[in-house]
Amino acid sequence: MILNILLMIVSVALIIVCLLQSGKSDGIVNALTGQSSNLFAQQKERGADLVLSRMTVGLAVAFFVLAILIRMG
Q1: Do 48 and 60 contact (CB within 8 A), yes or no?
Q2: What pLDDT does residue 3 have?
Q3: What's an example of a GO molecular-function annotation for this chain (predicted)?
Q4: Burial of 14 by CB count in 10 Å (0-12 exposed, 13-18 middle, 19+ buried)?
Q5: Beta carbons within 10 angstroms of residue 71's beta carbon
Q6: What number of other Cβ atoms are within 10 A of residue 17's Cβ?
Q7: Domain segments of the chain as ranges
Q8: What is the CA angle 15-20-35, rounded to 5?
Q9: Which residues of 20-36 are buried (b: 16+ CB within 10 A; e: fewer)?
C-alpha cells in the first residue's frame, strides 16, 4: 500500500521535472533540414539544467525500482 502511494508521488514528480526541462528540438530540426547549427558541439549542462537532468535520472531509477518491488511483492 505504501509502495503504491510512493510510486504515484514519484510518477507525478517525474512528469513535472520532465516538463520543466528545456527543449532540445531545435538541434534535431536543424539537423534534419540541413540548416547550420551547433548540434554536435560539446555543450555541458550547467545550473538549473544540470539539477533537473540529475533529478530526472534519480526519479526514473526510483520509479523503476518501485515498480519492480510492487510487482514482486
Answers
A1: no
A2: 96
A3: protein-transporting ATPase activity
A4: middle
A5: 7
A6: 19
A7: 2-35+45-72
A8: 115
A9: eeeeeeeeeeeeeeeee
Long-range residue pairs from 6-9, CB within 8 A, at least 24 positions apart, any chain: 6/66, 7/63, 7/66, 7/67, 7/70
- Dihedral sign for Cα 30, 36, 41, 43, please: negative
Cell of 64: 523503476
User: What pTM was computed for the model?
Assistant: 0.73
pLDDT tens track for 36-67: 655 555 677 788 889 999 999 999 999 999 99
Taking the C-alpha atoms of residue 71 and residue 73, their distance in angstroms, rounded to an integer, is 6
